[in-house]
Amino acid sequence: MVDPTLSSDSKPPPPALSQDIFLSPYTKAYIRLYIPLNPPKDKKIPLIIYLHGGDFVLFSASTVIFHNFCNDVASQFPAVVASVEYRLAPENRLPAAYDDALNAIFWAKNQALGSGGRDPWMEYADFSRVFLLGSGAGGNVVYHAALRALDFDIRPLKIRGLLLNHAYFGGMKSTQSEIRLRDDPYVALYVNHVLWSLALPKNLNRDHEFCNPISGGTYMGRVFRLPKVYIKGDFGDLLVDRSVQLAQFLRSRRVSVYYRFNQGEFQGIELLNKTAAQELYDEMKWFVNEVCVVSEEIGSDRYHASQ
């Protein structure tokens, strides 16, 4: 765990400044807010609402790997980043994490409206260019929070896109990648099953929509209303087939989907490998800046744009 960086006085100076803002007096949920060290003075920058990974059971917005990730996103895009400290299972089973993410969206709406005053750092944010970004379980939270937000008037916020990095999904029937990599040293298949038993509401199985988003459920009729979606996966991750299935499902619902699935890499590689991290930052920045051209294949045979 690391504290927020409120000052640029340290040497070397940090890539971004950060502060913690509590969301509710009734829960431990809070926002760790980031701005670039030298934010642009002549234009607004995107607002990225970030949900960290950890299989719904582990880690925090203050965990050093996710803190550093948000520092990099804020400085490189550049962007205002609001990293959400959401409640964890098993003490707080789903949908608690979704509720906290939705409350973070409402907080951003209130900031846009200036309700009760606006944090000075949010003056840099372009509330018409909001993106939801999630890693691992955070990718799952992003997907569900975006669908839930469709039930509310969040204007003047405009959620332009979702970015799912190694999103954490599952199901009762094992996929080919889960069979092939069932003894994965990072998180083996049986460990995933245990983690889902802790995260899901009691008496629900892994084909519930919280875990398996293509199995049916209450959200199916609104999926077509989602904004464009970026999906990143790696074929060295035992859960990669879940992301492939989600991309195919979204395309079938006429959602604009941009995806990359790399050979040989694994879940969380961007947290351990600087080259992989920079590739991810560059690609996400490209997506956020809307450089991509719908319906045109771009770059390599593993990266496609489709609608």
UniProtKB/TrEMBL annotation:
GO terms of molecular function: carboxylesterase activity
EC class: hydrolase
Segments forming domain Alpha/beta hydrolase fold-3: 48-266
EC code(s) of this entry: 3.1.1.1
A Pfam family this chain is assigned to: Abhydrolase_3
Keyword Hydrolase: yes
Name of the protein in its database record: Arylacetamide deacetylase
